[in-house]
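Usage

Read records sequentially. Each one opens with the input sequence:
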Amino acid sequence: MSIVVYSIKGGVGKTTLSVQLAQMLKYTYVTNDSHSSAHNLMPEEKGFLVSKEDYDEIPFDKNIVYDFGGFKDSRINDIIKQSKVIVIPTLTSIVDVQATLATIKDVIKLNTNILIVINRTRSNNKAIELKEYLSEELSNINHNINSKIVFVRDSSVLEDSLFDCEYIEDKAGTNRFKRHIYRNAIEDMKLLNKSLEL
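and closes with the structure output:
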């Protein structure tokens, strides 16, 4: 099963989620974003950059998490078509939500298995309202979309995980204090993993 994490908007947490998913699932991490350094921080032979300058096409394979940058890249279309699920992260601002809807409209032409992640949530009420709004919009766009919407809480632990590209539960290990501090992030990543089965 290959997974695409994609949004036309930058700064919504694509790379953080992609790295966590890749490490949790023991998948290879592939990005087309030459401004990202995550591929260099992944364990050896587990992170790759497929820049436009070096690759005319992006190779497709199983057991890969594709992190597609916040820009248009026609090379990603074949990958989106073939992947099991497309994860679309969003934040709760109006600009992010508009970009998310535009991303969904692009993606459903190629793949209708969509998992929306309302990322870095702080206010439950705002996140729940956004979930209801997006659910309604999804049904207006296309009744045949196979979709779920999940929340990932705001967490400095998740953001900091990019420095070493380690899966958050592995990072906590068996240390009870760390597991207590990381508990929300661990719960959210487990829920995200479970939600991949649309």
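Summary fields computed downstream for this record:
- The radius of gyration is 16 Å.
- The chain is about 40% helix and 20% strand.
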